[in-house]
Design a protein that fits this description.
Elements: H1 2-29, H2 43-46, E1 53-55, E2 61-65, E3 71-76, E4 79-84, E5 89-93, E6 99-106, E7 112-120, E8 126-134, E9 139-142, E10 152-155, E11 161-168, E12 173-179, E13 186-190, E14 196-198, E15 206-211, E16 218-222, E17 227-230, E18 244-250, E19 256-262, E20 265-272, E21 282-291, E22 295-297, E23 303-307, E24 312-315, E25 321-323, E26 327-331, E27 335-340, E28 343-348
Antiparallel strand pairs: 1-28, 2-3, 3-4, 4-5, 6-7, 7-8, 8-9, 8-10, 11-12, 12-13, 13-14, 15-16, 16-17, 18-19, 19-20, 20-21, 22-23, 23-24, 24-25, 26-27, 27-28
Protein name: Dipeptidyl-peptidase IV
InterPro entries: N2O_reductase_N (IPR011045)
Transmembrane segments: 7-25
Length: 349
Amino acid sequence: MKGFKKIILWTLIPITLELLGIFYIDQFYLNDETSFNTKKIDVATKKGPNKINVKVGDEAKNIKASYNGKYISYYEDESIKVIDTSNNKKKEITFEDGGKLSSYKWLPDRDIMLVAEKYSNGNLGNYLKFKSYNAKKDEKLPLSDENNKELKIPLLDGKYEVLDIALSTATNVTYVKVGREGVRSKLYRINVMAQLEETKYYNGKLGEITALNKEDRLVYQDVTYNRIRVVGLKNPIATGENAIHYLLASDSEDNVYIGNGEDEKVKKIFVASLKKPRDQWKILTLEERVNKDNIYITNKGKIYINEPSKSLVKDLESGQEVQYEGEVVEIHDFGIIVKDGGKISGKLF
């Protein structure tokens, strides 16, 4: 009997050790929430300012960049061209028969874009479909539900287009603004399961939209009543000051950037938070009024001012400046994208 107990004991010891090993790997090696004392080395910031050097044709439109500038994209010859800036290799996003580009947008923190395609198809009428394009994998997948049914947004007529797209990668929720001149825009919400619902908003003209990153909230500019509102909340985001309020952007920490000024020009920028009282907001006063389209705010919350007359971009808080030649088409987390004639180039901050 003692011998039998010894056999069982010696059998259990290696099994126990193996289970402890598996537990350790699961809890400390594969756990996404494990904290390590490491230093992030960003390869992109180590490369020289001439990293981006792409030639484009005269018909290139909708020039955009991924969040880190690794990919440049533009629309030409009825397809989206995607350039890997590390080797200048070109990839192409084409559309199904009858499909045309309505809009596209890069995700704020990934090398993935959402593409909105418009179709006019006889008895099916006019509608939108959406594709997700992974630039690294060169893979395009339709937005479809668990039953592989493709998501479609019906349009009242062929003049409707996607006017804006707001994305949240943390909640996997997308908001789409659809409309045309002279009519009230429609607002749609697409959840993580690719299910669609129309979103109601205050009875006014819908302006700029942005989605908070950490919670499912859409912030929008109510042009009619000069308010910055949040879907689902009764009260607007109030700055406590008069003048026109322009919704500029939101960042990864759910800060909302509101420009205060008039005639499309901004004098103050309010960095608002839904979770903080107004006296804890950051308020930045500009030296002179700046056209709102020349204010760029990255996903990391960096604010840059483009001064076209001086051909320079300035970091609003540090004062650091970057000179350029041509026309600024995009500012990403690490630098600026400039188009000069038939060339797209970049400079890093």
